[in-house]
């Protein structure tokens, strides 16, 4: 065996080589970066489209509406409209949208769909 292969590399030498290599790669990476990077990132939230454009501007007062008016609301058919009226007659006026969750047939998804169209005046 050749005597030139009989040397040891210390842990310090390996560490030093690693640091130098990392510094060179770091410098190379950032020396090629564009100079005009934005200083602040901006976020434009997506525009939420009205899923029922035919109801644009419609406001239904759930405390005074009859069954026909209530059926203008998305997801409210004749049966649920009658249930809203019956609940209102038995328990009094609704004071908040969450009160409608007490009506059989109205769940979270239906409430979410009608919430922008209902008023309690």
From TrEMBL:
Pfam families: HHH_3. GO terms for molecular function: DNA binding. Keywords: Membrane, Transmembrane, Transmembrane helix. GO terms for biological process: DNA repair; protein secretion by the type II secretion system. NCBIfam families: competence protein ComEA helix-hairpin-helix repeat region. It comes from Youxingia wuxianensis. Residues 68-87, 98-117 form the Helix-hairpin-helix DNA-binding motif class domain. The keyword Transmembrane helix applies. PANTHER family: ENDONUCLEASE/EXONUCLEASE/PHOSPHATASE FAMILY DOMAIN-CONTAINING PROTEIN 1, ENDONUCLEASE_EXONUCLEASE_PHOSPHATASE FAMILY DOMAIN-CONTAINING PROTEIN 1. One of its GO terms (cellular component) is type II protein secretion system complex. This is Helix-hairpin-helix domain-containing protein.
